[in-house]
Predict the 3D structure of the following.
Amino acid sequence: MTGAHSSGTIVEAAEMHPAPNGVVYQYGTAGFRTKADILDSVMTRCALIAALRSRKVGGQWIGMMITASHNPPEDNGVKLVEAMGNMLTEKWEALATEMANKPTPEAVLEYYEEIAFKNNIDLKSPARVVLARDTRASGARLQACVIDGLKAAGAEIRDFGYLTTPQLHYMVRCLNTNGAYGTPTEQGYYEKFGGAFKRALRGKKPTGTLTVDCANGVGGPKLAELIKYLPPKSEGLEIIIVNDNVVKPEALNVECGADFVKTNQRAPPSSGAGPNDRCCSLDGDADRVVYYFKDGNSMFHLLDGDRIATLVATFLGDLVRTSGLADQIKLGVVQTAYANGAATHFVKDNLKLKVECTPTGVKYLHHEAEGMDIGVYFEANGHGTVVFSPDTLKTIAAYEPRSPGQKESLDTLKACIDLINSAVGDALSDALLVEVILAHKNWGAEEWLGTYNDLPNRLLKVIVKDRNMFKTADAERQLVKPEGVQKLIDAEVQKVRQGRSFARASGTEDAVRVYAEGATRAEADDLARKVAEIVKAAGAA
Ligand code: 16G
Ligand code: MG
């Protein structure tokens, strides 16, 4: 921990880390993210924004996570975390973008003072910022740039070194809630989630083993640590860790990790798992997880975020009902347009739950879920968690079960609440929750897969002149610009049985993404190709 006194001025800090010429930065879907060698100035300036944000919220701790998630090893980035452990509010994203693009150190200072003035921020009031980073080689250098900015802004600093992104979110929430969410230490995190896992299992033992691919990122060493707080494998879950080489930073996310598995629809080549062995893959900062297995015929099966959402919603829904709370607590599920049509159908028609659809990006889903009693949200790519409203938590805490059966369900429900990192999607906590549910159902991955059949689908990437000309509405399901393009897409969708397709500009890459599904593999592929052609033609204009 370092002191709260400013050393050096804002101008000096900005001078130490000048902005490269001609680069335009943007606080994107999940923070700034680009090649690490052009991020120094962004880090220092983002630190100033974090300090201002902390002052704006009365000196509460604000988080800064240095990571580029599933991006290649040479990239890096930074995301800011709000006081309750959620993602930075959109208004402040815009301030961060503007600050990052200021041309000179003097302009940085001027903007710093302007933000303070316009937001009624007293620059002498305390500012507190908590830091962590993933295992990228550039992380140490970039962190030094952050610290220069924080010192210049006179912020108190707490540095946790290496953490997963969700661990940092956890620390922020703990620090600002006087321990109500947990103890703000790494050990506190392991004790909380390890303890809740044991309680939620209630003596049940998961079948088989779980092989966890850690993408050669920070999730590896952290999972190894967490395992020490889980029940011994003879009584609980046997976890086999693979791809945990953080000594070789160039191996990060290469031929492994959640993004590799989801995009390529295959297991990492390094995986040594046998037939029907349950596997999951984390991404580089462990805020995302997908499951998969190979069957007896070596056929690969993916159990993605949609599957986790349906499994979790089924289980929590059952617990609410069997606890006797169904009249008081309603569950809902939040998805994006990428959710497989079969998953949406399953939630609506089998589980009879409300489904909402939001644009892509954790912050939109999280926000929507906050409006529900219990909001289960997952993106197909594996980002997600469960959010419990304050009233729901009160209802559950105060509820007196009327039978031993109700008590059993209620105790399991309470343990699951503790097991879920509701500050943000957490690959480690999500995986433990999945394992608890499978153990209760006495299921392996095959049974889980058997709950419904995914519609065949295809995701394509189209490079266009300017992706910003593609504007969507209705949670990205309709293209409103360029005009007339949606009509052409609709005409193709009509021709395909169970056809559905949409196109949207990526928030993280310079491309337009096309998604299509249909009754058969051939129909889905064909539809995706046709829609991609339409987008390509429109984007060439
Ligand atoms: C980011 C988002 C993720 C989203 C993805 C979409 C967070 C923490 N991460 O990784 O939620 O699914 O972007 O990428 O919000 P795309 O816009 O390139 O398709
Ligand atoms: Mg990530």
